[in-house]
Amino acid sequence: MDRITQVSIRKHHDKPNRKYHNAAHLDHVLRMFRVLCVHDKISLSEEVKLAAYWAIAFHDWHIVAAKGVSAEDRSILVAKSKLKRTSVNAGLVETLINGTKHSPGLIKKDLAAYISDADLSILGSSKAIYKAYIINIKMECLAVYKITDAVYTKKRIEVLESFLVRNKQEKLFLTPAGKRFEKAATRNLQYELNSLQKQAICCFGWDLCWSL
Hints:
The protein is mainly alpha-helical. It is built from nine helices and no strands.
């Protein structure tokens, strides 16, 4: 990846409204991807490494769906347009970005699972880091989606509950190395869910809380 493209990616991701899905997030995902692969002794060819790097760099280019097209699919289109002048395996890049949809049905036990686990590793971080994540993801959602606190609370509770159910039934983390995050992720997700539910009760009353 040339220097101009790298600068363009970082500039795009460091827009003021990107409080979480920013360049620091890309750096974190890339670092964790490497850590997970090394832990599980996954040997990657230079071609695959390059495709993984591109997938991570572009997986959050878009963070909002549009006209029925998911944010990930929109990001894939951007990545493919940038790849036209390169020898990077565009098909593999698409497969790896699809892994960040975090849908078990779309992820096989392959490299996409490592990118998925790296992307979700923030959920299994320390309490201090997770609390900072809670603040940043809320600020970003309020700014990007132009929603109220009440709507955010409702949608976020739905997301947290779905993550907890999946972590119990199918597991959020799909790689052997990623299993290390499961216990902390459950703790963090439950902590945030409890906090939001208490907030809903306090601010909006029982009726609204149950409607959430």
